[in-house]
Design brief:
Blueprint lengths: L22 H76 L5 H29 L6 E5 H10 L4 H4 L3 E5 L8 E5 H18 L5 E9 L3 E8 L33 H11 L3 E5 L6 E8 L18
Parallel strand pairs: 2-4
Antiparallel strand pairs: 1-3, 4-5, 5-7, 6-7
The structure holds adenosine-5'-triphosphate and magnesium ion (MG).
């Protein structure tokens, strides 16, 4: 018996040519049946486990399929949002040339809102695509200085509205410093950092953007501001999706906390990294370090194991 249930019956015939079974014979039977019960129970448990494992494996397979379908649908929807927004942005541009001076501020506010929305959608889409490896980095060689200058020249109206001073800082070198990477992605990293620096700093403050050449073929781009800074305990956390420092509600109008996640993933796709230096009260310096001559890095997806020779 096991757990008060009969699980097997052991039938013993009479001893051939002998008397009835002795006490010690019966003890041997009991002992033997104990072993048989454990063997049967083990077998039954093994069978149940095998069945449960098969059910779980099937459920896992279905969940992965659903997850893939959900990601594809999500990416498609987010991507399709870009077209109507691009149309709104283009029409606002036309409006901004013809609108009267007194109504100009409304068009500028609408333009800023659309720029923000477009950037957020691009960040969301690229975070997903860089993670699942569906975006291919387009590598080209470009001057590091041009990248910073371009990013500064394409800032949305917010920098002017806040009357910020945008300063540049470059190494004192005769030869032009270049980097090989995805220029569009690098540009979007810089723009995200610049927009953060402007948004989270008080009006009229200055911001410094530039780069430094490091030893061993690495280059670091940076954006420095004199805003409220980032508390040291959040230096890693702010690069996670949807993490925002509390107490900056006003500066964060219409933001969701995706920009720095995009910057981190895009830097890592270049074989680099991003970090912040700040004491949490007197400004911050965001630094991206990447190789000058990089190769695109695969962030996720299964890597094939090398066959042993
Ligand atoms: N230069 C900065 N100074 C102070 N705090 C900053 C700075 N940059 C980012 N932060 C803090 O880090 C948080 C995350 O930044 P992130 O760029 O990821 O998101 P966001 O600016 O809130 O939204 P999004 O960029 O998606 O529009 C911000 O909400 C802000 O609290
Ligand atoms: Mg941001």
């Amino acid at each position: 018996m096991s757990s008060n249930k009969v699980i097997a019956v052991l039938s013993v015939t009479e001893k051939v040519g002998e008397d009835s079974f002795s006490q010690s014979d019966q003890e041997i039977f009991l002992n033997l049946s104990g072993h048989i019960i454990s063997a049967l129970e083990n077998d039954r448990l093994n069978m149940t486990l095998k069945q449960k494992r098969t059910v779980l494996q099937e459920k896992n397979r279905q969940l992965k399929k659903l997850e893939r379908a959900k990601t594809e649908l999500f990416n498609m929807l987010v991507h399709d949002l870009k077209t109507p927004i691009a149309e709104i942005v283009a029409n606002h541009d036309i409006l901004s040339y013809t609108v009267s001076e007194e109504n100009k501020e409304y068009v500028v506010a609408a333009q800023t809102g659309c720029d923000n929305l477009f950037r957020m959608i691009s960040d969301l889409l690229d975070i997903a695509r860089l993670k699942d490896g569906t975006i291919k980095l387009v590598y080209e060689k470009f001057a590091a200085k041009d990248l910073v200058k371009d990013a500064l020249s394409r800032l949305p109206g917010i920098a002017q509205q806040k009357n910020m001073q945008l300063l540049e800082s470059y190494p004192d070198m005769d030869t032009e410093i270049t980097m090989t990477g995805d220029r569009t992605l690098m540009m979007r990293i810089m723009q995200n950092l610049l927009i953060n620096a402007i948004s989270y700093s008080p009006d009229g403050e200055s911001i410094i953007a530039g780069f430094e050449q490091l030893p061993e073929g690495r280059i670091s781009f940076f954006v420095e501001d004199h805003g409220p800074g980032v508390p040291p305990e959040l230096h890693d956390k702010i690069f996670e999706k949807y993490v925002q420092v509390s107490g900056q509600v006003k500066a964060r109008k219409g933001t969701v906390g995706l920009g720095l996640t995009f910057c981190k993933i895009a830097s890592e796709a270049h074989g680099g990294n991003i970090r912040v230096e700040s004491d949490g009260s007197t400004g911050s310096r965001f630094i991206i370090t990447v190789p000058n001559e990089g190769q695109p890095v695969k962030l996720s997806g299964k890597t094939k194991k090398k066959k042993k020779k």
